[in-house]
């Protein structure tokens, strides 16, 4: 019988998602539009939340839901102005992070497709 492996396992598990999130937040830390959206001075708590969410989404441990409940992504982002500029900046930093992983083409495409759809879904205003 063949063991079915999750996307999380296929791309390398926790180390892959740690690297993705670390690379992403390196960009966010210097971004004048995105950085103010994070309430903590240190981006560490936000990075951990994103890492746990992505790990769970892709078939890894369920720690995110155990600690925070249902993801409710749109609701959690509602207090912030997520306009097309913020979305595009988020995607630019995430593109750099995804590229740093050097995943096989199908895995890269699968991950990137999800991230793009998620970013577009978070837009909650077209105002500045």
Automatic annotation (TrEMBL):
Cofactor: heme
Alphabetized UniProt keyword annotations: Heme, Iron, Metal-binding, Transport
Alphabetical list of SUPFAM superfamilies matching this protein: Globin-like
Record flagged with keyword Iron: yes
Protein biosynthesis found in the keyword field: no
Domain of life: Bacteria
Family: Belongs to the truncated hemoglobin family. Group II subfamily.
Name of the protein: Globin
The organism of origin for this protein: Agromyces lapidis
